[in-house]
Structure formats: structure tokens, C-alpha cells
Records
---
Amino acid sequence: MVHLWHRAARLGSAVGLAAVLAACGGGVAASPAPPASPVASGLSASPDPLSTTLPSATATPSTPAPSPTATALLPEPPAASLAGLVGGGTAAGSLGSFTWAGGGSDAPWIVGTRAGSVGVGRPLRLTFGGPVQPTWTAAWAKVVHGTAESPVGGAAGVGDGSVTAPAAGGDWTLGVTATFGPGANATYFWRLAVTP
Amino acid sequence: MTTRPFLRRLIAGLIAVVAVGATAGPTLAATPDPAIPPAWPLDSALTYLWTSSAVPPSTIKSAVNAAAADANGSRKSRGPSFAYSSGAPNGISYGPSNPCGVNGLACFQRNPASRYWHLWFRENGHRYDWGTLSWCEMTGSPNGCFQAETITLDELGHVSGLDHHVNLPDNSDYGDAVVQAYSHARPQAGWSASSFGRCDVATLQQAYGLATWSTPYSTCLDIPTTLLLTASPTATSTGRAVTFTATLRSAGAGLLAGNPMASRVVVLQQRSGSGWADLLTMPGGATAGSYVAAYAPKGSQAFRAVFRPAAEGGRAASSAAVSITVTCTVAPCPLSVGQADQ
């Protein structure tokens, strides 16, 4: 299910990246249409966005919206994933706020469902989809009674990189803010059990 | 444009990480929000109406209208203004039919080239993986609710061309921007902001210039200034007034270059020993950015003007010295030039 969501995100990313690159090269092309999006790019047959009744967007990352609902979403940044979890698993990040291809969405620091566990102080491998490797910062926030405490800085980098799990065990969220270019950034979250 | 401040912050952050445990780390300064290109034409009046198929409840309508007023009142630039109009070409939608993605509270699209923009708001009570959406205006402001007015202001900032603020590693500058990557719920810091933060304003000023020549530069900016002092005449006789004219301009980049700076504090000083002493505050002149004062020197003397910024991002500046030669025509004449006015 997550894969479907990511496929939709990558589809939007391709469109979005083209718009971003166009913007980098001298601004958005003079078009009477709304910004690059599935609607504007012809990926769906939706009419003018003002008169479009968009299908309901589902609420949870675990139940991604299949096409055609996904094509009605704003174009989204590439997915990010985290490897090095206990058991060798990889977990996709939950997309929070972003700006991309002339659009964007705002969300809080997300404390979602647990993506896995990691030992204290263990390295985690962070990878980004798409052709553009972003600059990024990462911060950890401890989860207390289901709420994230104030995040503390953890790491920063360019492109795929690594972050280190907190030195204290417990319920934590990792938040990563990635910047792909002008008007193109994203936040991703993972909720992890950090075990001694 | 986006990456430069981010990289600067990134490098600063890395330095800070390295410096952990050291006796004193570097002091980091807030930076303007990154920009989303392209900008709108200057002074764009952007109107909106409620999408007929997704009309917000009255409390959200009020919040949106309040946020429009907040944006208009705090943009301090020639950035877009927002107003409701029944004939508006752009819309605001509320409800479950939205393109905001899995976790979005609200979202936007913009395209200045076609004068298109749109906002969408999730419906109150929407269930996310991480909780249930509560708009404060609709639920009596319990802890955990989101202020629709503040979230709208964030979205209008995006529509204006503001990208998410890059916070300091400790988030101590969260209050410097409304356009944030992490929306805060009550009672977190900034949950009920009703005006753009100084680093939002900074980017609006960079993109659109100042609202007026009297508008202060955002303190999130650090704009060099130039101050020129002229005098007429430069040679006079005792008791005759000299007219001093100071001209203050910005020396930033783009739309912040060469702007007259009006309604500032510019002080005329005279040489005093090896230093300078304040003589008078120069009133604004007929031309924006000019400051004019008449003064009758008692003897030959050097003068200069100084700009003293008050809570703004324009740097202090002083002019070059201007020498005035005074010929004594009325006894007793000063014994020594330079001591007469001390």
C-alpha cells in the first residue's frame, strides 16, 4: 500500500521536478494554466481546479489513495526511507509539510505509527528518491504520552546520508527536513522504538 | 535563492554540532525565509471566494478573512494583498475533498504567471494516523487544536512566495516566522500568530520591496546603508546659517538597493576634540530620504551626519565629514577654531 502511495508521489515528483528545474532556469513558463500538477500536465482529465471536486483524500499513510484519487493530490516530493532498523528493515518516511511544483501542504510534527526499532546510538541510513539529492537536517523528538517533545538537532547533510539513533532509549520520532531547490522542500517523519 | 541560506544554516549547524561541549559555540542568527519563485507583480490585489462545492463554515470564513487582514497589515512590503470578493477568480475550499496529501492540515497552489492560486482546508474532525484535526475556532480552543487564522496566514505566505522558514537547531527562532515546516498546535509557541514574523517579512521585502520609504527594514535583514551629507554654503561668516542636507539610502541587493529611507533618526554631529558630538536631530526634508537642518557655526568646523537605526534591519551609517569655513566678522572672534562650539 505504501508502495502505491510512493509511486504516486514519484509520478508527481517527475512532474514537479520538471517545474522546479524550469523555475531554476528562469521561472515558471508563462502559461495560463495552474502550476505544474497532474491537472495542469494532462496526467488526468480534470477540468479547471476551481470547478474540480476532488476525491476524498484518505487519512492514513497505511491506506494510501490509489489512482485516480492519487492523481488529484498535489504533486509531492520524492519519498525518503530509513534503513538499519532492527531486523534489517527499511521504513518509508511519512510526508509532512512540503512545497513542490508551485504547491504545498502544511502539517505538524507527526507522531504516527511506529515504523520499527533501532538500538541506542546505532546508525541509520537515510536515502532519498528522485534524481535531485537534497540538503537536509534531522532532529529527534521524544514521544511522551503520544506527543512529541521539543526536537533536538541530530544531523545534517547533502544527499543520502546517515543519522544516529538517540543515546537514550524510548519512544522517539525522527524528523528530516530536505531542501531540493527553490520552492521544493519536504519534511519526513519516522516513529521508532529506541532500545537499549 | 533557497539553497544559499539553507547551506549557510547547514554549515552553521554543523559547526554548532562540532562545538557541542566547547566552552562557547557560535551565535547563530535568524535568516529570511527561502522564497518560492516566481514572485507576483508588485502590489498585486489577490481576491478569493468560497468554492461553491466546498464552502467553509462561518467560523473558518471569519478566520480566513482575519488572516487576510493579518497578511495585509503585516506584509510591510509591496507583496500581494488579499481580500474576499464575490467575483474573485480564485477560491478557498474546505472539506474532505482536497489535494493536501495524507498529513496536510491545509494546502495551496499558486501560479503568478496565470494569476492562479487556491487554498484548501481539511474539515474539522478529520482523523489522521496521528490524531484528529481540531480547528480552534470551531472547538473552543482546547489544547492540541490548530488556529485556522494562523494556518491561513501560513498559506497566504506561501501564496505570496514564502517557503518554510529554516529554523535554528534549537528552534528558538520559531516565532520569527509563521511560514513553518512544523505547524504548531495550542499551546505550542506561535500557535496563534496573527501577523507575519520578521523573517517572513524579510523575504517579502526582498521579493517586493518596501511598502513605503518610511517602512522599516525587517530586523531579519542586515541591509547596508549610505549616508551623504552636503552643506550650503561651505564658507560663511559668523552668525550666518548653513543648510545641511543628509541623504540616506539603502545599499542592499535587488529591490532593496538605492531606496530612500525616510522617517529615520539622522543626527548632525560636529567635531569635538578627537571625536564627535551630537548637535541636533535633522528633520525630514521635502524629498524622501533627505534630512535638512540649518545651523550657524560659531567657527570653522567639521560636521557629519549619522544614521541611528531603531528596531530595523538597516545598518547604522555615518557620512563623510564636511568642513565649514567661518570668517569672523563680529568681535570677539573665537581664539581657536574647533573649540568655539565645545
Note: The CA atoms of residues 96 and 147 of chain B lie 18 Å apart.
---
Amino acid sequence: MKILKVPFKNREIEGLKAGDEVLLSGVIYTARDQAHQRLVSLIQASKKLPINLAGAIIYYCGPTATPKGKVIGSCGPTTSRRMDEFVESLLRGGLAGMIGKGRRSKDVRQLIKKYRAVYFLAPAGCGALLARHVVKNELVVFGDLGPEAIYRLEVKDFPVIVGIDSAGKSVYEDL
Amino acid sequence: MKIDKIKKQVEKIVARAAFELPADVSRLIKKAYSVETNKRAKQALRWILDNARIAKKENLAICQDTGLPIVFLEAGSDIRVCARDIEAVKKGIESGYAKSYLRASAVGPLKRGASFYGGAVIHLDFIPGVKGLKITILPKGFGSENKSALKMFNPTVSIEAIEDFIVDAARRAGPESCPPFIVGVGIGSTADGALLLAKKALLQDLAKPNFDGNLAAMEKRILEKINRLEIGPMGLGGKTTALAVKILKAPTHIAGLPVGVNIGCHALRRATAVIK
């Protein structure tokens, strides 16, 4: 079990191997389909981004509404593959890691190796359990997208498994 | 009077479906956990079981994808159902989702934009044996729904080919559909009919065997073949890739044999209310 602070300050990514169980503490940003489309459009138009990508971790998640008295609603991972086409732009912009569910394309695996990034798997279908690990939740931008907006989450001991490490090795090699 | 009752009952089952994993599903996951020897798979199943416990305790959605709400209405011969009742169901869904702080996952298909509570898909069947109005909600998440499959077979196709198609659909569903799955299969009817049967198959009690002996044998064979894929929970390997396979059939045309597959993820959420 590895315990890591995010965003990564040093090259802790290099020490991670596919299959490692990790607990993340620190800041991650949610973003899914629509937000990715908007971010990449801004990058292509050379406009300033609403989040600082350098060293950042993006979590593919669209949470439920937040019940009274809670920090966040149910917030498990969505299928990562839908965001594959946006990965290159973001990695080039400095993105260090992604958290999601399921396989990535071969291209994405190679990009993760090229940019020495990392892809984590969050417990799939376990949004209630993961909500317990979110201590702060703030809307950053794209509020019109509701659950698909970019939220800044402060997480504590957020359980993940290394899906693809910076050497490009994947837990899903056999599938 | 009845309109208000319908709305309130629908709000109740919206909450129950979102927060409480059905007992038949939970039992199978516990069984899978007890027989699992793969360390990662066992951890994934542990997470799933802990998640269900936390969701029920804290009234939090089991999964953040609280689905596109699918409603199955069954009306008996002793009541009347009209359009206003259906509108009451739709209102109950919207207010239920809002009251339970679920997710607005419905959008216009092409323009997308801001999502909303709603998008309910409603089916109404008249069943002589049923008393009152039985309302079942199946909030369907799209990680699994996106892996739906349909094949229009020739009428002379072998059973083996049909089973291979179903197993292959499960294989292609993979980790993205949150295994261990419940696999719904529809055989016969029309193209849309087969897919609807596959969806209805997910409503079946997983603890009860298929009363059709032939289909029960098919279900058993297909389940074994799917588990031999060893995809496992989160696709991390292991003994259980599917918890159950359920097949429903209906008469079809002499020139065809439609087979539909609908994958249910491990968070197969469903809840029922009966209004007398």
C-alpha cells in the first residue's frame, strides 16, 4: 500500500507499478466528456485554462447532487475510454495523472509512457464509499454542466489501483 | 387521490433503488467474495460490499450514475390506468430524483447541454393475474447500457452460436461495464422486442431458477463460459465475471431469430411498489 500526496511534487510517479494499491491525499479535479471537449478547445485556441494542468490529476467523475450536511454526493469513476481522444492535449499541457474506470486505448498507453504520467483505477461502482474520502468539494468552472462541471476535490486516503504506470505497463494486458 | 399516491410511491422506490442493493444481488456478491482467491479481485468485491453497506446507512447513491430511469408498470384487471397516471409516474421520478439528491443524467441526444432529472422510459403491460398497479423502477447506468448487443440470427442457427454471441457480448462489455455482471438475454420477438426482453430479464429474481428447463440449462452453460473468461471484478481477474444469466423468450417470426443482450453491472438497482 503506497501513500501519496497529490498533485505530485517530485517523481513519485516513477516508483508506481501497474497493480500497486495507492491511497491519494490532496487535490484532484473532476472532468468528463463535456469538460474535456471544452478544455481541449481552449488549448487549441491558445486560451488560458481554468485549471493549472502542471502536475495535476484529473478524475473522470460526474457526482450526484450533494445531500444536506455532506461534502459531496456519490462520486465513483466513469468509463475512461470516452476521454481517450483528449488525453494527448492534456498530457502535453502538463497533466500528471488520471483516475477512472476500465481500459484505455493502446495510443493512450503509449502517451502515458511518453509523458511519464500515470493512470489510476478507482473502485468502480463504489461512489458512496469514495464519498467518504472527499473532505472538500468546490465548483471551479463550467457550472452550467452540472455534474459534468470541473470540481476541485480535496481527498484523503482515496483508494486507487495503478492501472497504467509510467513505463506504459497496464493491469489489463491480458484483456 | 390516486395521482398523489402514485407520485409518492414512485419517489419512495426511486430512493430505495438508488440506496439499497437488492438482496438477491447482494447475496451473489457475498458468495463471489467468499470463493474468490485472487487478491485484487477479492479487494474489488470487498469495496463493492462495503459500498453497499455505506450507501444504505448514509442514504447515498450506491453509484453516482443514478441512471436513466426505466419504469415497468404492470396493471391488473381490477384497476383503470390512464395518461394522467403515467404523468404522475414521470412527476414522481423527477421529484424523487431531486429529493434524494441523485444525478441529473438525462440530456437531449444531439444538442446535449445541461442535463436534467427525467428522461424516464416507461413500459406498461396489462397482466390479468396482477392486483392493482405494480410499479418497478430500474435506474439503468450507461457503463453497462453502452454494451448492449443485438443479433438477428438465421432461424436455423445452432444453440451454440447463440451462446457464443452472448458470451462474446459479455467479453466485449469488459471492465467498463463494472463486472461482475448480471447478463439479461432476450430470445425471439422482434429486434426491439428481443432487447426489451433482455432488459426485463434483469428484473428477474436471481435466486429463482428459470422455470423453463431448457433456458435454465442455457443460463447455466453461458454463466460458466462467461466466468471462464476470468475478467473478474474491475477486470482485475478472478473467478466471478458474471453473477447470473437470465433469459426470457417470446414467439418470433419464421424467418428470424433475434437475440438481444443487456448487461447489468454489479449495482443492479431495482425497487417495486404496488398501488392497490
Note: Chain A has a mean pLDDT of 96.
